[in-house]
Design a protein that fits this description.
mainly beta; 1 helix; single chain; globular; 11 strands; Immunoglobulin-like; disordered N terminus
Length: 172
């Protein structure tokens, strides 16, 4: 009986460990961690995507574009506060990931704008996307969709949810 308990515990540990890495992707020396999005209000024409990109190599690379099956257009944006005003700007030249560094795409910072939605992201229904890097090339990723508030306890991003994009009111 003790053998079965130990075996069961080991098996559950392996399953949990593989689930934790189920949304990680590798492309050369780049490691893409947990692509995710939020459900958006009905009628919204834009959504946002988030993830972390780690560069484990010795040379910089740059995220220069991409696509998502639910969107007509894909852009890389940055939000930052200037003189007390939150501003969002497209990063036309992409975002560099320096060697040995990581860049987080999260609310209130860098993020992926999914414009001209063909279908809105729906909680629990992941969607596919492609990230394009200057040197490493392309990688397909699956975006997990979290609730509108994105405050799920299961979410590794629960602490990053200070900003809830008001998708309906935002203009581009």
């Amino acid at each position: 009986m003790r053998f079965i308990s130990i075996f069961t515990a080991m098996l559950l540990g392996l399953i949990a460990a593989s689930a934790a890495h189920a949304h990680d992707y590798h492309l050369g020396s780049l490691h893409i961690v947990h692509p995710w999005s939020r459900e958006v209000p009905k009628g919204a024409k834009i959504a946002a995507g988030y993830l972390t990109i780690e560069n484990n190599g010795t040379a910089p690379d740059r995220l220069i574009g991409g696509s998502a099956e639910i969107a007509g257009r894909f852009q890389i944006h940055e939000m930052k506060t200037e003189n007390g005003v939150m501003k969002m700007r497209e990063q036309g030249n992409g975002v560099e990931i320096a060697p040995g560094q990581s860049v987080k795409f999260e609310p209130n910072g860098y993020h992926l704008m999914l414009l001209d939605l063909k279908s809105a992201p729906v909680e629990g229904k992941p969607f596919m996307g492609t990230l394009v890097f200057e040197k490493a090339g392309k990688v397909e990723v699956k975006f997990v969709v979290e609730p509108i508030g994105g405050k799920s306890g299961a979410s590794p991003h629960a602490g990053h949810d200070k900003m809830n994009h008001d998708m309906k009111g935002m203009k581009h």
